Amino acid sequence: MSDTTAPLAPPDPLPAPPGGRPPDPAEDLAALRVVPVRHYGRWAAASVVAVLVAQFAHGLVTNPVWEWHVFADYVLSETIVQAVLVTLQLTACATVLGFLLGAVLAFMRLSRNPLLRTVAWSYVWVFRSIPMIVQLVFWFNLGALYRELGVGIPFGPVFWSVDGNALVGTIGAALIGLSLHQAAYAAEIVRGGVLSVGHGQLEAAAALGIPRLRQIRRIVLPQAMRTILPTAGNEVIGLLKGTSVVYVMAIGELFYQVQVVYGRNGRVIPLLMVATAWYVLLTTLLSVAQFHVERRYARGAGRGRAAGRRSLRKERP
């Protein structure tokens, strides 16, 4: 019996394009029309923001309540400039004292001694829990709690004593309150920076016989500063603005003096704008300084990463 199934015929070839050459995909893509995506929601949001900004600027210029001539009279007056200097002094002293004490507390929390860890943890817990204004008022009234402060043997003779009110004045109470409050936050910042350094480096340094204090000074802190500085800079800026709380103690810082002036002449809005302008200027300067310090400490890390990449490229076959 013969097989009557006929073989399938091959398909007809595709017609050749004009010119006798196959189609080029690149030419097909070039012929496509590129249509940019239209972000209608983004345009609408930008339009709303532009209208609000224009309305705000119009109000600044046309609203007579702003009294910009009064602002110009007081922004560089001697009273305000002296108040700015007091604000800067409080900020600088509280920053130095707070971060020194905070560094001590941070290493106490990292200590293997349970008593040191417990005391440092308790300090951070207590001083982060109490509002700054409560701490300031407490230290301001320290003389009512301790009429006399002395040094001696517990339950024994006193070798030296001083009147409580004479020891802690108004400025002293403000510095104590600001510094102790700042130390609680600085301790956590420093501790986080130290923990960011690899533990293997300390083990290697200990194996080489490098003393513990030298390990901290030459190995830990230079690397930890890259982690500490961004948060520490923000804390200093927050402390600068937080010094306005000491107005409750009648200290002649910026916000207190502004209140005194507008309490006499009744020009509340322009005097508040004077304080606002100074705070914005000071925080801007601190932000610029923070940026440059961070960039300086980041140079070593950038060089280290670049050297590591170069060494990896050299090791590749």
General description of the model:
The protein is mainly alpha-helical and 317 residues long. The protein has a domain of 163 residues: MetI-like fold (Orthogonal Bundle). It is 72% helix and 3% strand. The protein is built from 13 helices and two strands, in the order αααααααββαααααα. It has a two-stranded antiparallel ribbon. The protein starts with 24 loop residues before the first helix and ends with a helix. The relative contact order is 0.10. GO terms for molecular function: transmembrane transporter activity. It is found in: Cell membrane. InterPro entries: AA_ABC_transptr_permease_3TM (IPR010065), ArtM/GltK/GlnP/TcyL/YhdX-like (IPR043429), MetI-like (IPR000515), MetI-like_sf (IPR035906). This is Amino acid ABC transporter permease.
List key phrases describing it.
317 residues; mainly alpha; MetI-like fold; two-stranded antiparallel ribbon; 13 helices
End-to-end Cα distance, whole Å, is 68 Å
CATH architecture of the domain at 85-153 and 161-254: Orthogonal Bundle
Proportion of strand residues: under 5%
CATH fold assignment of the domain at 85-153 and 161-254: MetI-like fold
The proportion of residues forming helix, as a percent range, comes to over 70%
CATH class (first level) name of the domain at 85-153 and 161-254: Mainly Alpha
**Helix segment tally:** 13
Count of beta strands: 2
Give start-end ranges of low-pLDDT stretches. none
What is the CATH H-level superfamily of the domain at 85-153 and 161-254? MetI-like
Largest sheet: 2 strands, antiparallel
Q: Radius of gyration from the CA trace? A: 34 Å
Secondary-structure element string: HHHHHHHEEHHHHHH
Main β-sheet, spatial strand arrangement: 1-2
Mean pLDDT over all positions:
82
Shape: flat
Structural class: mainly alpha
